[in-house]
Amino acid sequence: MKNPTRPALFVATALLTACAGLPADGGRAEVGALTAAHGRALPSGDAEALTQRLLAEPITADAAVTLALLNSPTVRLAAARLGMAAASVYDAARLSNPGLSMARLSSNDAAAVQPQLSFGLAFQFTELLFLSQRKAAATAESDAVKLEVADAVMALAAETEAAWYRAAAARQSAALQATLARGARASATLAQRFADAGNLNARALALQQAAATEAEIAADAARAEAAQQHSTLNARMGLPVARDGWVLAEGLPAPAATEPTLAEVQVLAVDARLDIAAAQRRAQAVAQATGLARSTRLLGPLEIGVEYERETDGSRLLGPTLALELPLFNWGAGRAARAAAQLEEAEAELDMRVIDAGNAVKSTHGALLAARARVDRYREALIPAHEQVLAEMQREQNYMLIGVFELLAARRETSAVYVQYLDAVRDYWLARTALAQAVGRQLPASPEAASIRADALLPSSTPDAALPPAHSHAHGEHP
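^ that's the sequence the OP posted. Answer follows.
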């Protein structure tokens, strides 16, 4: 007997065998290509060996980012999403397994020799009809996931870079505050000697002692902040507490030589934002799924197959089967409405991201220029003015026109300006990192000045250098 179901079964078998398997890396290579195109190449090779090598050297901003990409659980979570998306594409490109049914029925007829046996084999023909559409929608969703994962990697890199700038600034500020505290305590000790020699009144001595205590409190706070930022950076790099013995590279980088214009960064942001590209691809995936839902609104599960039956009298029956759902109570309106709402949601998400991106680029660019202007004012105006005042007061003290403790107070004021300058440079780099994140890629490279060293910011002489002995007469310091 000719089996009319053989062509359909042959087609289904051919489709199953022609489908590609799961990708070996789950799409990681594509994510790596995306991040590399946006200025963040993913590290390769032995992760543990590279981690050990980087931790053995002073940690730069680039090294911190590399360590984060090697060790952070965020990257592993992203890789898991890639695997799930690849599995969805794999499943969407394949038909459901056929169903096998069996039955054994006995007759109450004493003359019947054999029981009645029946076997059935059926598969979902509806899936075969819309296999290509299902695969296209799943592929679009997988592409969106890859873009989102690449965006998450870029975000992790930016957050780690910002954490490095905070840690580097906190470390330098702590070193500077510690030096200032030592100098202030030396000044207070000197003031005590002056008071013991009768050359300093009680009010002036109390002022020096209070200034020393305030400097030590500031040094304690700066040291605690440096420790906190160190731990934050350690967590960003995906390292356990047991591996936090690394040291930071010396010096917070000086500002870049030039800054990109608003027009330049807006052009970069047009094609660089991975989250916008992901939202676009997801909207396409939802649109395809919506079209599929509309097409199958009235078409429920449709099964075709073959059934074999052996009657109790020994005769055999073989023939095709068909089973379909009748749209009597549910015409698929809810499924179609749900798909339409999901499409509207995806399109609204895309519009929101486009609007937010444009505004973020403009606002972060403005913040960068403001931070740069603040750094320039410190470097070109405020610091030189304080240094000139200090130099003039040094001359006056040499001629005994002012007292030594007036000079020391001026030194403390100048040193406080250096601390504020370090904060301004830190804020500048944080603003530049935020702009790069808003643009969606690394900003164009520009030549940078040498790193700023905290010890180079201090006045050339120590607070108690070239001070007169306690028994000498200094203007303004006698009782």
